[in-house]
Design goal:
InterPro entries: Glcn_transporter
Oligomer: single chain
Pfam families: GntP_permease
Order of helices and strands: HHHHHHHHHHHHHHHHHHHHHH
Distance between the termini: 40 Å
Keywords: Membrane, Transmembrane, Transmembrane helix
Shape: globular
Protein name: Gluconate:proton symporter
GO molecular function: gluconate transmembrane transporter activity
Length: 428
């Protein structure tokens, strides 16, 4: 009989990991160390502790190998300037009265085509500062537009979090992407409402900040709009072949993101005429994926601790005691783990690995469970112990105090996304 670690040991391990991350210890080491301490506190010996960690890290290897493959696509989109071209195109085509919508939509699309949300914010931030200075908008308003758009795009993208949600519940990446579309569009709408409501509040962007952020040196080398869209459109088409084929009775067309994303990225690279940059772009993509992969390995370790504990059982018991509908376990687990790690991808991995079996036992279909967990993870994934909080603040030169003011607005947007997903996939 396998050893069951007490629930409080899992909480101690996770809390310790968060404290160590706040103390600036590398998140991977923090998560692994928290897992070790949690196991030992729970009564496991050294051998049992190591087995728990190995089991947990092995469970995320499917996600890791897909993320490594996605690095080719991400490198091409970011380093070729394709993502920046798409952002400029969307914002330029929108009239001034729709500028905040344009910024949110641009960030949503950039994230949706496979760019990490912090990178998407960095790409759109100079454009956002220019728009804010010209229209008298506040920094908080434009960051809410960028962050909310990024959250919406993150649940429909072939990013690590979507791959993790699909892998965790045994569905395809494209199913997870398409399933998040309606919640994402609703999140975009809420983002625009919130950003417009506060556009005249707080610190305004000055023309000096606009000028200091402007960078026209790359404009001449950016690909055309048509070429920039080739890779993401091709990726979506190839990923859709499987579901579309099944709908008409054709099998054998179910291409995994492991194959699709690098193929689409390389074809896009050739069409943009940058084949001589293949080594540089793939190296950059791998470099950008490496920190995420390392964190995911750490998440796998502490996920092993949580899975080996009775924490999920205790939470289900509490929900039953309080008469909380069992369907809410999926979004709640995503919210809790996303908040605990301040990371969408890490939160999804912990939620699927630790609560996945309990969620499926309630009778929820794997696709529905994946969407609800995934959208739950974006509700409070922007807290100060995560990197996104700081990267997004630096992108618009925002103070820590002002960045803290954004958390509530971002949570409203994230909660709206999770609520719509829960209504569609859990109630209807």
């Amino acid at each position: 009989m396998e050893m069951v670690i007490p629930w409080y040991s899992a909480i101690i391990g996770l809390a310790l990991a968060i404290v160590l991350i706040l103390m600036k210890l590398n998140p991977t080491y923090a998560l692994i160390f928290g897992a070790v301490v949690g196991c030992l506190v729970g009564g496991a010996d050294l051998v049992q502790t190591l087995n728990v960690l190995i089991s947990g890290t092995q469970s995320v290897m499917g996600t890791v190998i897909r993320i490594l493959s996605a690095g080719v696509f991400a490198g091409v989109m970011m380093e070729s300037g394709a993502a920046e071209t798409i952002a400029n195109f969307i914002v330029r085509k929108m009239p001034g009265t729709f500028s905040l919508f344009a910024l949110a939509l641009a960030t949503m699309v950039i994230t949706g085509v496979g760019v990490f949300i912090p990178v998407a914010v960095l790409i759109v931030a100079p454009i956002a500062l220019s728009v804010a200075a010209e229209n008298g908008y506040s920094k908080i308003a434009i960051l809410i537009a960028l962050s909310g758009g990024g959250k919406a795009g993150n649940i429909i993208s072939p990013n690590p979090n979507t791959i993790a949600a699909a892998e965790g519940f045994g569905i395809s990446t494209i199913q997870a992407m398409v399933g998040g579309l309606i919640p994402a569009l609703f999140g975009l709408w809420v983002t625009v409402l919130v950003a417009n409501a506060i556009k005249s509040k707080y610190t305004k962007v000055t023309m000096h900040e606009k000028e200091s952020q402007a960078d026209d040196t790359k404009q001449a080398s950016l690909p055309s709009v048509g070429k920039a869209f080739i890779a993401p459109v091709l990726a979506v088409v190839l990923l859709l072949l499987g579901p579309l084929g099944q709908a008409v009775g054709v099998t054998g067309l179910d291409f995994d993101s492991f194959y699709v994303l690098p193929i689409a990225g390389l074809i896009g690279l050739l069409i943009m005429g940058k084949s001589n940059k293949i080594l540089d772009f793939t190296k950059s993509g791998l470099d950008r994926m490496t920190p995420t992969i390392l964190i995911i390995i750490g998440a796998g370790a502490i996920g092993g601790l949580i899975t080996a504990s009775d924490l999920s059982t205790q939470i289900v018991t509490i929900m039953d005691t309080w008469n909380v509908p069992s369907v809410l376990l999926a979004p709640i687990s995503g919210i809790l783990m996303g908040a605990a790690t301040a990371s969408t991808s890490t939160g999804v991995i912990l939620a699927t690995g630790s609560f996945g079996p309990a969620i499926l036992q309630t009778g929820i279909a794997p696709l529905n469970a994946a969407i609800m967990v995934h959208t739950g993870a974006v509700v409070i994934d922007h807290l100060p112990h995560g990197t996104y909080f700081h990267v997004s603040a630096d992108a618009v030169d925002m103070s820590f105090a002002d960045r803290m003011k954004c958390i509530g607005y971002e949570s409203i947007i994230g909660l709206s996304i999770a609520t719509v997903a829960t209504i569609i996939y859990g109630i209807l």
